[in-house]
Amino acid sequence: MMFVPVCRVRSLVRCIFALAFTFSSAGAHVGTAIAAGAESPASRPLSDSIGFAHDQPVLDPGTGRTVSSEETGDLGLTRIVPTYDRTGLLWGRRYDPDARFWSGPRPAIVVMHGGGGMNVRYLERARWWADQGYVALVLDSFGSRGIPENWLTFNRFGGNMRAADAVAAVRYLRGRDGVDLTRIHVSGGSQGGWAVLRTLTANAPWSAEAAATIASGIAWYPVCNRTEDGAVPLGPFTRPVLFLEGTGDTATPPEVCADLASEPGNRAAVYAEATHAFDFRGPPRQHAFWHYPMRYDPLSTARALAEAIAWTEGHRIAADGR
Questions:
Q1: Digit-coded pLDDT (tens) for 15-30
Q2: What total number of domains does the chain contain?
Q3: C-alpha span between 191 and 124 (Å, rounded)
Q4: How far apart are alpha carbons 131 and 142 in whole angstroms?
């Protein structure tokens, strides 16, 4: 489901990478995904001045998608989205609004999963957007590449790769009939929120395309780490971003994102006592790997969804590209 807690000291980051190798040697399910991303930035070619290459290969066409530990049953995903470098196909699922109630070109949104990979809750969110009249596309960045989840912050399956996937998903939507090309948005939570921020950060390889094709971003309790070893740059942003956060979030505290959220054009809605993943239905629980608390908050969820739809309805790409 979600992502890594904020690391405030470099020594902790080094400990995290050490833990990755420990879990890998133990053969744990989560450890398999962690170990896949435990190499240093210097061991990979760079996509820009800082960070890992964004063009991580996808599985061969004859290989099935790798499922996450959070999946229950068949999610109905298919290979539909050409990758950013057009060398393969990403798995995903598109939801279209009911034509009986919605006519004309419709707005669209890309839904990005968190560090736990795909699960049914992302499909539920996409269906919610379709019920609001949006073409909604859920993208599986991890399963498309043979990993179930990725709980480390800065590795080759992180922000650069996922930002490139978001841009690829927007390209796909722009090629569909019935999509309003001025109203395509990207949304994600935790690591998915971090991917949204990276997608819209200026001076990345895809920045010009993202600025010209994405109307806005929505970052639910995003990872805003920018100073640790291997971190990719975040901000300033080429398009407006809505931050949806909670004061009870000990994994990605709102104060870490405060300077980014305060940039002109952005907005932060912070909900009292809401934890990480406050919008995911289920009993109160702790994250299986990082042990931070998660608690479904229906009131904060309803308020955040109202913020989200008001935000997307209020943002589009103007004729002059602004």
A1: 333 333 223 323 332 2
A2: 1
A3: 18
A4: 27
